[in-house]
Every structure is written in C-alpha cells, then in structure tokens.
Amino acid sequence: MSDINETIIEVRDLCKYFNVGRRSKLHAVDGVNLTIKKGQTLGVVGESGCGKSTLGRTLLRLLEPTSGEIIYKGTDITKLSKQKMRALRSELQIIFQDPYSSINPHMTVEDIIMRPMVVNHTYPTRAKMLERARELMDTVGLAERLHDAYPHELDGGRRQRIGIARALALNPSFIVCDEPVSALDVSIQAQIINLLMDLQDDLGLSYMFITHDLSVVKHISHEIAVMYLGQCIERAPSAEIFKNPRHPYTRMLLAAIPKPNLSSRAKKLEVIRGEVTNPIDPPPGCRFAARCPFAQPSCSEKDPTLTEVTPEHFVSCHLVQNGTL
Ligand code: SF4
User: Fold this and answer.
1) Which of 84, 125, 255, 302 could form a disulfide with 270 if both were Cys (CB 3.0 to 4.6 A apart)?
2) Number of independent structural domains in the chain
3) Given the CA of residue 318, which atom of ligand 1 is nearest to it?
4) Residue 188's domain is classified under what CATH number?
C-alpha cells in the first residue's frame, strides 16, 4: 500500500526567465518551491500574468527551466536527456483551458483520444487502441454514440471531457490541469471538477490545478499555493487558506470572491488597486509593495522569503513573519 504522504513531485528554487530585448529578462517564474503528494491536488492561484501557467508547463518541461530542480519520483527531470524525457512523457500530462485549440478539428472523438496511443505504440493493434478509446469515453462520461462526432459538433463541457480522456490515454500519474474550467458555464464547471475528483479517487492521480479563481479550487485542492508575479507568496492546506489567509494579497483575492446576496445593500466587490510591479528585471523587495495597504519603506529594500509561520502554513511577507500583521 502506498504511503499517503508520499511526495510525487518536488520543485526546488525553480526559475523560468524569458529574454526581452538584448539584456532584460522577464521573471515569469522566480524561485518557486513546492511539493505535491501522491493522490493529492495542489491548487495554484493568481491573477492573469502571475506565471502560474508558465510554472505548470515548466514543471512538465514543455518549457525548459532557467534554473532549479524538478524532482519527480526521486529523479531530477531537469537533468534528463530529451530521449529519456520523451519516455517519461506518458506519466506527466496536461489538460488545457480550451482543448479545442489543441486538437485537430478534422479528427473524430475516438481518433483524438486514440492519438497518444498511436504515437507511443501503446498497443499492438488498432482494434485494441479503439477498445481502450471507447473505455476512456465511458470513463469520462462521453456517450458511445459520440465516437465519430467532430469537436465542433460538441459543447464546451464535452470537449473538455475529450481533453481529459486524451490526457488519461497513456495512464499518467501526474496531470497539470491548466484552467480546465475557466471557459465553461458554472454548472458545467462543477461537473468537470467532480469528474476530475472521481478520477483522482479511482486512479490515484496527482494534480496541479491552475486557476485565477480561488473559489474554483476550494473543493478540489488539498493544498493551495498563491502566486504573485512569478513567486509563491503563500502556501497552506486548502481549509487553512480559506479560514486564516495571512498574506495581504491572499486576503484581497478572498475578499474579491463574489458572495450570493440578494439584498440591495449587498457589499460591493473589493478591487485590488495599485500598479503592478514590472516583471522585467524587477527591483529588489516585496513585489506586492506597490499595491499593499500595509507596505512599509523596509518592504521595498529586502526580498521576503516563503517561511513557515505556523505548521504547514508558509507566507512570504516581512510583517507576517515579524508578527505585526
Ligand atoms: Fe505588504 Fe510588506 Fe508584506 Fe509585501 S512584505 S506583502 S509590502 S507588508
């Protein structure tokens, strides 16, 4: 029996910079540390442009990291050759926000799901692959009659089910779910999240679930990491983040979640004000200082580091760490 606390993936000081012009660098991911346990979900949350999708892609080496380590099942995969990485690809999969943009619109549903098996020669015969594709359609709740439908004939929820079936085709252990429900109606979002949770229970999958919406990850995540301008600024078990958010940015994100209220005096939504620090060669100090209502002059002098402030609760803020916030 596997240890429920077994780590499947650990990221150490991971950086991904992009060259901008001749000398400047955009710090998309900047010194991120995190771990994901086997059979669990890490929710990664932050505004658009905070580097969360780049983090997910770098974790799978779809983008080459600038520096840092990615330890998957005990092996640092940043050191693996392209050939060895290719062999590992089947275990590490991704589900995209809009599967329509990543699938061939001229292929039928079963051909799309079968494609990874064809490329990887997973089964000796086409009949066996077809059988597995039909099984996967059943697993993700796609009716058998849709086997020869084309993606444009299906709604967003069914298209996302194809994306999930395709990601499962090679029996992965770890899946990056990159905003998989952001483009869907709220009722369909719940169906897809429930499907992902059922698959996790049945197949023991581990997820990194990326979203800009904290309320979406509340139920699916065991742990949540909040990102701001390429850095993880708070990380804690999901219930703890919602009950006791510590970083000023996390508090603002939570305050911005709309709450159902039929009263005409319903509280207006909080808006996170202030100018966002430029991620190109960012200056030293806390990157949230320009928008933080608690900022002190010292916040812009020294980089805060992600530090455990209570058991399993990590925060990157000088004031939280010295007990004044
Ligand atoms: Fe705000 Fe300072 Fe904490 Fe940054 S370090 S979040 S500026 S209080």
Assistant:
1) 255
2) 1
3) 5
4) 3.40.50.300
Predicted confidence (pLDDT) per residue in 138-168, tens digit: 999 999 999 999 999 999 999 999 999 999 9
The answer to whether residue 300 is domain-embedded is: no
Quick check: CB of 229 below 6 Å from ligand 1?
A: no
Decide: 200 and 181 in contact? Cβ < 8 Å. Answer: no
Q: E-strand spans in the chain?
A: 7-20, 24-37, 41-45, 67-72, 75-76, 92-95, 174-178, 206-211, 223-228, 231-237, 307-310, 313-315
Task: Return the minimum-mean-pLDDT range out of 94-98, 146-150, 202-206, 267-271.
Answer: 267-271
Q: Among the atoms of ligand 1, which is closest to the Cα of residue 249?
A: 6
Pocket test for ligand 1, best of 233, 286, 298, 302 (most atoms within 8 A of CB): 286
Contact by Cβ (8 Å): 316, 234? yes
In a domain, 83, yes or no: yes
Q: Is the CB of 304 under 6 A from ligand 1?
A: yes
Range of 114's domain?
Answer: 7-243
The Å distance, Cα 19 to ligand 1 centre, comes to 28
CA gap 234, 317 in Å, rounded: 9
Please indicate whether residue 317, judged by its CB atom, sits closer than 6 Å to ligand 1.
Answer: yes
133 within a domain of the structure (yes/no): yes
Residue 321 lies in a domain: no
**Distant-in-sequence, close-in-space partners of 52: CB < 8 Å, separation ≥ 6:** 44, 45, 46, 210, 212, 227
∠ at Cα 163 (152, 131), nearest 5°? 95
**Spacing, Cα 264 to ligand 1 middle (Å):** 35
Report how far residue 15's alpha carbon sits from residue 230's, in angstroms, rounded to the nearest whole number: 9
Question: For residue 42, what are the contacts with CB-CB under 8 A and spacing of at least 6?
Answer: 34, 36, 207, 208, 209, 221, 222, 223, 224, 225
* Stated pTM of the model: 0.93
